[in-house]
Design goal:
The protein is α/β, with parallel strands linked by helices. The protein has two domains: 221 residues, Glycogen Phosphorylase B (Rossmann fold, 3-Layer(aba) Sandwich), CATH 3.40.50.2000; 161 residues, Glycogen Phosphorylase B (Rossmann fold). Helices cover 47% and strands 17% of the residues. The protein has 15 helices and 13 strands. The strands form two sheets. Strands 3-2-1-4-5-6-7 form a seven-stranded parallel sheet, sandwiched between helices. Helix 8 links the parallel strand 8 and strand 9.
Length: 404
């Protein structure tokens, strides 16, 4: 091995995307680096400057890419980001670091293409971590007429090209690591991968939970945590809250995770429905703050239209919240038996399920205890240690092939 002893490993870890608040894959990236370092594995990250600043004490060698937040931004910012990425990759080619394996910690096109190029140039195996392989982006040329009519010819070509390139790269990886069974199914369907080339893994909770209080002592009736985007179903919350208020005038709902702009937009609906004293909107909170909020919440609601694992649902369970989540395949497969489900996109169905829980505090207490026990099955150290053992086998196999 390249590392300090025969059991150590050096991983070039790619997570190249503009900085944002803590979302699932970013938390995954930070936690993976922390745990692998504790397991005597050296990490050389390629990521944005903000994340590098968070892991400076964990890594000595790193490639900080000064990316700009480019979501919905003008074209010039996106092009500048690509220039930064190309410059970083070029520097790796000119002066390659010593490493054994390339790990793309997100399945976006940038990370996948970067990993492929470095792998081909330096003859090292690469692995792709997939949090979400979107089936709605799985298109071929036969879909061009329909996509062109929906999104325009340029966007249609870009979407099809992106999918075909991702498929090409995935099929040439040493392994695809899928976060959850639903993601594995997506990888098989989107990229035509053999199930034997996919390792199914999980995430763990990332909040700091202190004392677990009984449900009846908690002050927040309903909690939402997540981005304020349409795909997360967050805009159903005012309607859910308004329906709950009809039978419970003092209902207290809190939504956490929006930007100042997101909150201002949703506040208009809150005022329109006279929910100012019932629905509180908060910006993103740290893990410690979020843990305290979850400890004080009875019910956690996840009305998302699309998920693969939903780390935040698991975090809410670790704090003893009773979870009411969308009845979509990925969540049903993972959280059946420890959560209650409502129809995705149906505010009335969510309100019905939540109302029945609030009328049954003893039942909520039983579900809360069951949820906490379930969350203990997901331990970051155990999860990442298993992944590391597979990475070592890939490196060993690659060395045998090269030395033949």
């Amino acid at each position: 091995m390249t590392g300090q002893d025969k059991n150590s490993l050096v991983i070039l870890a790619s997570f190249i995307r503009p900085p944002g608040e803590a979302y699932g894959s970013e938390i995954r990236f930070l936690r993976t680096i922390k745990t692998l370092r504790e397991l005597n594995t050296q990490i050389i990250p390629i990521t944005n400057g903000r994340l590098v600043s968070k892991i400076t004490n964990l890594v000595k060698e790193r490639y900080a890419v000064p990316l700009l937040s480019a979501r919905n931004s003008e074209l010039s910012k996106r092009l500048l980001n690509y220039c930064y990425i190309i410059k970083t990759i070029t520097s790796i080619f000119i002066k390659p670091p010593k490493f054994d394996l390339i790990l793309a910690l997100d399945a976006n096109l940038t990370d996948m293409l970067t990993s492929l190029l470095i792998s081909q140039f330096l003859r090292k195996p690469f692995v792709i971590m997939v949090n979400l392989a979107r089936e709605d982006e799985s298109h071929n040329l036969k879909d061009l007429p329909r996509l062109a009519s929906e999104k325009g010819i340029v966007n249609a070509y870009l979407q099809i090209s992106s999918h075909l390139v991702k498929k090409f790269i995935a099929q040439r990886s040493a392994l695809v690591v899928a976060v959850g069974l639903a993601t594995k199914d997506q990888c098989i369907k989107c990229w035509q991968l053999s199930p034997s080339r996919i390792l199914v893994t999980n995430n763990g909770p990332n909040v700091f939970v202190g004392e677990i209080r009984p449900i009846k002592e908690r002050e927040i009736d309903v909690l939402y945590v997540g981005r304020f985007t349409k795909s997360k179903g967050v805009y159903l919350l005012p309607s859910i809250c308004a329906q709950l208020k009809e039978s419970n005038p003092n209902i207290k709902m809190v939504a956490v995770g929006g930007s100042a702009k997101d909150i201002a937009a949703m506040k208009e609906k809150v005022l329109e429905l006279s929910l100012l004293g019932n629905l509180e909107l908060r910006e993103y909170q740290s893990s410690i703050q979020l843990g305290k909020i979850m400890e004080n919440s009875k019910i956690f609601v996840n009305p998302s239209y699309r998920e693969t694992f939903s780390m935040v649902t698991l975090e809410a369970m670790s704090a003893g919240c009773v979870c009411v989540i969308s009845h979509i395949e990925s969540l049903r497969r993972l959280y059946s038996g420890v959560s209650l489900f409502a129809r995705a996109g149906d505010a009335s169905d969510f309100a019905r399920v939540i109302s029945s829980l609030l009328d049954s505090p003893n039942e909520m207490e039983r579900i809360s205890m069951r949820s906490r026990e379930f969350s203990k099955l997901f331990d970051w150290d155990r999860i990442i240690k298993r992944e590391l053992s597979v990475y070592k086998k890939i490196v060993y196999k690659n060395k045998k092939i090269i030395h033949k």
